[in-house]
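1st attempt posting a full record on here, be nice pls
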Amino acid sequence: MKKKLLLLSDDIRTPSGVANMSRNILAGLNDVYDTVQIGAMPKHQAKQADIFEGTKIYPSNGYGNKMLYNKVFEAEKPDYVMIFTDPRY
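the predicted structure (as tokens):
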């Protein structure tokens, strides 16, 4: 059974630089970890979790809130958390 990694970053389905790097990081880790992401966007249109390229993505307006984090931690029980965001925000 693989360990679970939760990534907090720009949604990997978007064209931002952080999203592109996050997508590459997760692509390299999918063989080793089950990957989950809290995918941030300023005004996210998605309302429910989706799977993209082997990663389960929880959509978030901005970088989320306490309720979203509690929901994801309760549902996914990640072993590791990685935060990769734009330092300006």
